[in-house]
Design a protein that fits this description.
Layout lengths: L10 E3 L9 E5 L17 H4 L9 H12 L3 E4 L21 E2 L2 E2 L8 H28 L5 E8 L2 E2 L2 E2 L4 E4 L6 H11 L6 E3 L11 H5 L7 E7 L6 H16 L1
Parallel strand pairs: 2-3, 2-6, 6-11, 9-10
Antiparallel strand pairs: 1-3, 4-5, 7-8, 9-11
């Protein structure tokens, strides 16, 4: 077994279940915990708190935005370094041996058995929780838009990233994403990216797995991490997103 009682459940929620809100919020990279059996994965405390391990501020944003919208928020509790819940298990970055130039000793020469434990005990329970939430909402006749929350670093490869918020979509069922993008761009002084700083592409796993087969509207939202650095920043972004989503 990979997980024990000390580790707890890999899926954490805000306690809001089926509501009249049409939104289901998810956080693929919202957690930074590491199973006790893996120790520190051979990484320093500093590395375990960097973007390679967690989308900084994503959990806090999900909790506040969920409260604003009265919407459920499902978050992965464990670090993306254990397994990346937004990558296909066959992707080399699913349990990266190196991330952003930092070697991850616990993922070097990962055995098939160890990989299967992470798949069975962390990855699939998270995706099963999303599936169950979506099916429960369908059963109760609640329409759903899937909102995936992420954060990104203020700079990359020596270049600054000017966008405070990025709205990601890939052309399928993206009317909601385009409307939210339009509303956010109406906010004076707010710098919003359309598929920036990332394109939504074949590396994304969660939205294609859950939204596409159900023909659900969706948005993958990226927020620059310095905008989520404190409580005031989290509240500001949550208020902006809540207004745009409910307009």
């Amino acid at each position: 077994m990979l997980l024990n009682e000390q580790d707890g459940d890999p899926v954490r929620t805000n306690g809001i279940e089926i509501t009249r809100s049409p939104f289901l919020l998810i956080g693929d990279h919202a957690g930074r915990a590491i199973p006790a059996s893996l120790g520190d994965m051979g990484l320093s405390e500093e590395d375990r708190g960097r973007h390679i391990a967690v989308d900084l501020g994503a959990r806090e944003l999900g909790l506040v935005l969920g409260e604003r919208l009265q919407a459920p928020f499902l978050a992965q509790h464990f670090s993306r370094l254990v397994c990346d819940c937004n990558r296909h298990p066959d992707d080399p970055s699913w349990a990266a041996a190196e991330s952003d130039g930092t070697k991850v000793p616990a993922n070097t020469d990962l055995s098939d058995g160890a990989r299967q434990q992470r798949l069975d005990e962390i990855f699939e329970p998270y995706h099963l929780a999303i599936e169950q939430a979506l099916e429960a909402r369908r059963f109760y006749g609640a329409s759903t838009a899937l909102i995936s929350l992420h954060s990104f670093t203020p700079s990359m490869n020596g270049g600054d990233r000017p966008w405070e918020i990025g709205i990601l979509h890939d052309g399928r069922e993206d009317a909601l994403a385009l409307k939210v993008l339009e509303r956010l761009r109406d906010v004076e002084g707010l710098h919003v990216g359309d598929n920036e700083p990332y394109d939504m592409d074949e590396t994304d796993y969660t939205v294609p797995r859950h939204a596409y087969p159900r023909d659900l509207p969706y948005i993958e939202i990226e927020v620059r991490q310095d905008c989520l650095a404190d409580e005031a920043g989290v509240r500001r972004i949550a208020d902006l997103l809540a207004a745009a989503l409910t307009d």
